[in-house]
């Protein structure tokens, strides 16, 4: 009898340790992702952050139906797509880290983060503040929330979280390697 209860107790400890490791890794990944996201959105991946403050360009577009992000007379859909894509992991990582929260608080956090980033750009004149950015960022985050929920229907939460952590860590290492070594060689 004691062997069976001891085995159950050992399995319970292993599960608790595994859950703790997932929690630490996922929170760490979220923190690193947010730092990189801020570095990307506000400082355009510059090493010399003070040079961004010399940009002194302040513009504000609150009309989403105006021709946003014009490049050579044409709408620059590339920047809108990039904004959309870089916020997908935000929604995914929020779901990994905050399972108890419902959709609305996570949606609100994504929206507030995007609005705050745009306001900081406007206040410090370090970029163009555009409602289209807020919309595409938020929609990207929402897609991340939805993708996690849909994936969770077919894959258990624990397996899905491990896959996201592993893939996110590999992607993060690749992006940092690319930024540090490849882009440095080009420029």
UniProtKB/TrEMBL annotation:
State whether keyword Coiled coil applies. no
The entry's keywords: Membrane, Transmembrane, Transmembrane helix
Limits of the VanZ-like domain: 31-150
Q: Which domain of life is it from?
A: Bacteria
Q: Which Pfam family, an example, fits this chain? A: VanZ
Residue ranges of the TM segments: 20-42, 80-98, 107-128, 134-150, 162-186
**Record's keyword annotation contains Oxidoreductase:** no
Listed InterPro entries: Teicoplanin_resist-assoc, VanZ-like
By what name is this protein known? Answer: Glycopeptide antibiotics resistance protein
Q: Which organism is it from?
A: Desulfosporosinus meridiei (strain ATCC BAA-275 / DSM 13257 / KCTC 12902 / NCIMB 13706 / S10)
């Amino acid at each position: 009898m004691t062997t069976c209860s001891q085995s159950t107790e050992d399995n319970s400890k292993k599960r608790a340790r595994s859950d703790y490791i997932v929690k630490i890794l996922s929170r760490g990944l979220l923190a690193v992702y947010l730092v990189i996201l801020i570095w990307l959105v506000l400082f355009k991946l510059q090493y010399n952050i003070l040079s961004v403050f010399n940009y002194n360009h302040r513009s504000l577009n609150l009309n989403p139906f105006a021709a946003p992000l014009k490049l050579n007379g044409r709408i620059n859909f590339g920047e809108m797509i990039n904004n959309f894509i870089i916020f997908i992991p935000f929604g995914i990582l929020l779901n990994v880290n905050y399972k108890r929260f419902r959709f609305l608080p996570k949606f609100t956090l994504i929206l507030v983060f995007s609005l705050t980033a745009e306001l900081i750009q406007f206040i410090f004149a370090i970029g163009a503040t555009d409602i289209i950015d807020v919309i595409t960022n938020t929609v990207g985050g929402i897609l991340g929330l939805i993708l996690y929920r849909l994936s969770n229907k077919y894959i258990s939460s624990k397996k899905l979280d491990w896959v996201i952590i592993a893939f996110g860590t590999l992607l993060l290492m690749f992006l940092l390697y690319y930024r540090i070594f490849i882009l440095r060689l080009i420029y």
